[in-house]
Amino acid sequence: MARSSTKSGRVYERGRSERSDSVLDDPEVDREVVSRFGARTGLWVPLVARSRTIGLIAAHDKLGSDARFSDNDLRLAETFASRAAVAVDLSQRIARDALRRVVDAQELERRRLARELHDETGQALTSILLGLKTLEETVDGDEPRTAVGELRELVVRTLQDVRRLAVELRPKVLDDFGLVPALERLTETFGEQTGIQVRFESGLSGERLPAEVETALYRIVQESLTNIVKHARAGNISIALTRKPAAVAVVVEDDGDGFDPADIREGGYGLEGMRERVGLLDGRLQVESGEGVGTTLVAEIPLT
Known about the structure:
By secondary structure, the protein is an alpha+beta fold. The protein has 3 domains: 3-69, Beta-Lactamase (2-Layer Sandwich), CATH 3.30.450.40; 99-169; 173-302, Histidine kinase-like ATPase, C-terminal domain (Heat Shock Protein 90, 2-Layer Sandwich). The chain has 8 helices and 8 strands; from the N terminus they run H-E-H-E-E-H-H-H-H-E-H-E-E-H-E-E. The strands form 2 sheets. The chain has a 5-stranded mixed β-sheet, with helices on one face. A 3-stranded antiparallel β-sheet has the order 1-2-3.
């Protein structure tokens, strides 16, 4: 049920207190619902913190001979709501700061591991390749030479896997050149590995964004592509990066099987992690899908 379809939802959206001496006569109240539990009067007080509604207090039928709520009742509820809003807002900010530290630590560790794989492990494997090539050229006998050649091919494949893993952990191009080149490389590699047609378009014109915004959008696209190849059975993917006056948005569309977002379990398809990333930057994530109609994911992050 949409928030705006209920009295509480409408009060939440308006952000101001309301009371009703007869809820059955209030055109915004669902009469069937209030009749079910016998409510006669109502009081709705939003919890507002830093000019933002973060919750709502709703009460029905004041105890006593008169079920109506008075002006004093309303002021008392607003006082309580004001103090509760401060506590809730503080709790949310503490949780948000803790999540941001976790995400930042994860990216730092990814960057460190990627650098070690690329610089240390990659260089060590390259040195082994050079040694094996020399050995292959100098060893006597077809059988030993074949064995050395097979070993060298194994090291080549391992080196390719190490480089791929390093890019998946933290692509160097993202730090050095920005989001657009990183997404170009990501979509090109994804298409080559999966055979899925990927079309990527950018409206940033080479503009660099704040590092945390670039990282968040890159991870969202990366996770979306992983979901598509695992679940969607799509043949075509469209990715569009657009710049708005005070925000940046990425849209990922596929022509796969689709799903019912209401049926996805908590954390399913990585959507919860995406929402957390976007939420840390005061952005929003929207997913539209349905059985057999593909999926459209939109992530928008403000830049002011």
